[in-house]
Amino acid sequence: MSNLNRRNFMRVGGALAAALLSAGILTNTAFAADTSTAKVMTTGLAVTDTTVKVGILHSATGTMAISETGSIQAEKLAIEQINAMGGILGRKIEVIQEDGASDWPTFAEKAKKLLASDKVAAVMGCWTSASRKAALPVFEKENGLLFYPTFYEGLEQSKNVFYTGQEATQQILAGLDWIAKEKKAKTFYLIGSDYIWPRTSMKIARKHIEQHLHGSVVGEEYIALGDTQFGSVINKIKLKKPDVIYAAVVGGSNVAWFKQLNAAGLNSTKQTMLTISVTEDEVLGIGGENLAGFYSAMKYFQSQDNPENKKFVTAFKAKYGEKSVIGDVTQAAYLGPWLYKAAVERAGSFDVDKVQAALPGYVFKDAPEGSVTVEKNHHLTTKLRIGQWGKDGQAKVVYTSGYIKPDPFPKGYQ
Length: 414
Fold this sequence. Notes:
By secondary structure, this protein is α/β, with parallel strands linked by helices. 42% of the residues lie in helices and 19% in strands.
């Protein structure tokens, strides 16, 4: 980073931290009468009088890097801002970063290293449900703490995980309700990458379409993660002529998927699509011209017009460049370090059990997406937004729901 960019980042980051302090969302280092390590850390974690070690575990390489790089960037930005204002309980955060390399067993291996060897106090990490499912037994065995940022299928709740993204009822069900009403859609073609999240999401989507929307699924396809050949699927879609393509294609496959759709003439003037897997991060690789007019169902878009988001976007671009973009999961990843800081300070301790107990009920009023509440089931109460993509790679928010409480085990969808 150039000296100018560094000065800009510190100026903007400091301004954001000051704003959060003045709003009462953050606190300074005067947290408790006694914040000595002997008092605030009794379980052998990597906490000293001056530092606390935290892990970052995402795919920096492989097919998922296109999606997960933004999460890494956002978590590091939040950590730098927290350190600039004094850290957590007076301790600066030191990051140990590991690469899951888009390989699920590697996530489990790296999680064990971070928790058992490095003794990190918390981990910001995972992206796909496959990576989370692989790492979850490690977090539960080692009693580690994971802040997981990705929208996901639900049907899970762990005391060792805080889910800062949205679960199925907050994204899948609410999004399908909107598209069915807005476009009077009755027929749907489901397509996703071939692993647990898309398959479970489509199972939930099918039940909702058939049982609640009284529509029909005219096709359902799964493509191997990282595959780039969509010609056969596109031909089937042309034959079936669905009212809506409902898509959960992830990672690098998205680039080929949208480019081949556009080349086949299935652009938004001829076909409606609602995707639950495309954010600004993916659009950067896809190209706005290849999906202009299609819709995404997310809780956050970079274009949101509120003071907190403007500060966040300004700080992010000051650090990572004007051409950088911020997607739904990137923003949710940014929440992780701030929620961890709030939890530790509410607990007055770094001990995992105390931190877990302290966070439910916390309201983060100045989150870039808007105020969110941490619920007892470790998910967030948040809103759904529908964004329509433009050629510039940004989405216009065309619908915002009311607050939706998380329900990771919805009756009738399990």
